[in-house]
Amino acid sequence: MTDAATLAARVRDGDLRLYELEDHADAATAAAARRHLLAEEVGADLDTIADYAFDAAVADANVENMIGATQIPLAIAGPLPIDGECTSDAVYLPLATTEGALVASVNRGAAAIRDAGEASTRVLKRGMTRAPVFSVANVEEAAAVADWVRASFDDLAAAAESTTSHGELQEVTPYVVGDSVFLRFSYDTKDAMGMNMATIATRAAAEVVEEETPASLVAVSGNLCTDKKPAAINAIQGRGRSVAADVFLPSEVVEARFGTTAEAIAEVNTRKNLIGSAKAASFGFNAHVANVVAAAFLATGQDIAQVVEGANAITSVEARESGLYASVTLPSLAVGTVGGGTKLPTQSEALDILGIAGGGDPPGSNGDALAEVVAAGALAGELSLLGALAGRHLASAHAEHGR
């Protein structure tokens, strides 16, 4: 077996490229060779980057040109009691973050939910999307292609589902823009987040479109999906899992946990999350859902870039006669418990904290459970931050934690 120093020298001499190292050594040695080369070229100390706990070969499907691992502090918030379709328990939510006071904030919201009883959660819709774009000669052809697609769902489903043993095509919606035709495919991907599954299946269906119509495929992703970008279509039609969580907090819980009133929290939500977000033309009408989504995604091996659509959420708050009603609705949360980063040991263990690592029984139930937990965590985070703002102790909380 070639050692790391020898491999690094071959790269430096131009005999090998960085991405070819795994062809000449195991994954760990290849990573060590890259670190050796970097240490020589930039003078960096990479000892901590080199000190990772998993087998480098496990990450082959997740990263190229590996040199080591980035470690992010991992915490838990909870227990967080949830009454959902796939989660009916008090759970500890794993959160990986570098933002001080975040976990403390979510923990405070979870405590308020515990005092009130539990948060209710429901997955409202499932559907991972991919939207290829086709070119045609003119609007007449575009309309004809759209009509054919509407009449040919079974043919498209047969082609798409021939590529997967798990995914199911749910719908195909055509959109015409001049001589461009976009087809938004939506799949039930069960416990997988399903982006790769949807892409491969859609490519097979696109071949049928090309065979049966004058349309020519330009790109298997035409940005109407919409993946990892802010988009109204995700907020309206959903993507991944659409999930909601709510809770009613009695007035005494609001006062005890947040030092303020239901009316004050409701006013902050209206003026900040609704009016302020509208003035900013924001897609996210919430306080900091992205914080919880990002921390949960990092902890459990989700695609962190999909925080963009995951944080596209609406927080609703209403002061009622005897307390505070609050809800969060996340229309486009892309989560899974199989595939991708969920296979990495640390992330798999984090899913084990929730009892949902791997595929669920029935299929899709673990993915739904994760969506419910993230939604409940987001609700806890929203309650805590809105309470801190209403009680005017946000700055003091950060100062207390030294942030």
From TrEMBL:
E.C. numbers: 1.1.1.34
Protein name: 3-hydroxy-3-methylglutaryl coenzyme A reductase
PROSITE patterns noted in UniProt: HMG_COA_REDUCTASE_1 (PS00066), HMG_COA_REDUCTASE_2 (PS00318), HMG_COA_REDUCTASE_4 (PS50065)
Catalytic activity from the UniProt record: (R)-mevalonate + 2 NADP(+) + CoA = (3S)-3-hydroxy-3-methylglutaryl-CoA + 2 NADPH + 2 H(+)
Keywords for this protein: NADP, Oxidoreductase
Organism: Halapricum salinum
InterPro entries: HMG_CoA_Rdtase, HMG_CoA_Rdtase_cat_sf, HMG_CoA_Rdtase_CS, HMG_CoA_Rdtase_eu_arc, HMG_CoA_Rdtase_NAD(P)-bd_sf, HMG_CoA_Rdtase_sub-bd_dom_sf
Stored SUPFAM superfamilies: NAD-binding domain of HMG-CoA reductase, Substrate-binding domain of HMG-CoA reductase
GO molecular function: hydroxymethylglutaryl-CoA reductase (NADPH) activity
